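Below is how a single chain appears once it has passed through the pipeline. First comes the sequence as given, then the structure the pipeline wrote out for it. We keep one example in the README because the format questions we get most often are answered faster by looking than by reading.
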Amino acid sequence: MDWNATLYEERHGFVAEYGKGLLEFVPVDPRQAILDLGCGTGTLTSELAARAGTVLGLDASPEMVTAARARFPDIDFITGDALELSFENRFDTVFSNAVFHWLPDHDRLLKNIRRALKPGGRLVCEFGAKGNVAAVENAFARACEERGLRYESRFTFPEPEAFARQLAENRFTCELVVAYARPTVLQNGESGLRHWLRQFFAAELRPLPESAQEALTSRVEELARPSLWNGKAWVADYRRLRAVAHS
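Resulting structure:
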C-alpha cells in the first residue's frame, strides 16, 4: 500500500496517540534495544527512544521513513518488509502499533519476530481485531457492489483466541492477549470519514476516475451515517487486539 505521510500525520494522528497506551508495557532500560515495527512517521519511535539505549524504526513505506528521518534525525529509520525481516537475536523488545492487520501471514510474521528477539525478549503489539471497522467495510463493499466493482478486504483481523494460538505455536509465552472496542472519533468533522477512506482505501480508490471516487465515497457516507455519525463527528467502529508475549 502507498502511504501519504503528510495526510497521515495531519489527519490520522490518533493512530499514534492511541498507541501511546502500549508504552506502559515497555520497561525503561538504557541497556535494551527496541525495534519499532511499522514505525510510520516516527511519533512512537521517539517515545521508545526515551526508554532504551538503541531504537530502530522500520516501515515498508519509503515516504513514511523519509518523514520520520526528517522529524527525528537522531533516530535510525530504515525501509523494510516485516515479512522479510533478517534480524537474528538482536532486540530485547519488538514494538508494533496498528501494523499487523495489514500483513496477510501472521505465522511468518511471528517467526520473523521471534528470530529477531533475544532469548526472553518481549513482543508488544496492538492492531485490528475481528470486527474492526466492520461498519465502514460493509458500507464500502456495498457501495462498490452497487457500482459493479468488486471489493476484497486486504485486512487480517483475528480473534484474540486465534492469535494467542499462533503465538503459542511460535513458542511465545503469552502475558496478555485481549480484544476491546475502541470507538474512534475521526478528525475533520463532516469530512472525517471521507479523509479516512482516502487514506486507508487508497488502493481501491486510486484506479478510479476522480468523479467515480467522489461518488463512491459519498455513497459510503450515506450508508454509514446511521451507525457512525453522532451529529458532530464520524465515530469509526474500531476494535483492537492487544498482545504482550515473551520469546
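Residues 137 and 153 are 8 Å apart (CA to CA).

See the next section for the split statistics.
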